[in-house]
Design goal:
- The protein has a 4-stranded antiparallel β-sheet, with no helix packed on it.
- The chain is mainly beta.
- Helix content is 0%, strand content 49%.
- It contains no helices and 7 strands.
């Protein structure tokens, strides 16, 4: 079973929690939502700044989404 432990320090397991591997440290707090072990979203907050970010590699790299508002 795959699982992620998410916070400022992110860890993952593929062994039902018997062994955890460090993934990444981030400088923001987030509300996370993953729909599989690789793809997820987070509402990230650092101070007063809030952004929507996503990952496609299990949390190793996070990209900020630049929303577009249609007219």
């Amino acid at each position: 079973t795959n699982a992620l432990l998410l916070g400022r320090n992110m860890y993952k397991t593929t062994s039902d929690g018997m062994k955890w591997t460090f993934v990444k440290e981030v400088s923001w707090d987030g509300q996370f939502s993953f729909f599989d072990p690789q793809y997820g979203w987070a509402v990230a907050r650092s101070g007063e700044e809030i952004v929507l970010t996503y990952t496609s590699d299990g949390g190793s790299f996070w990209r900020v989404l630049q929303p577009v508002v249609a007219p």
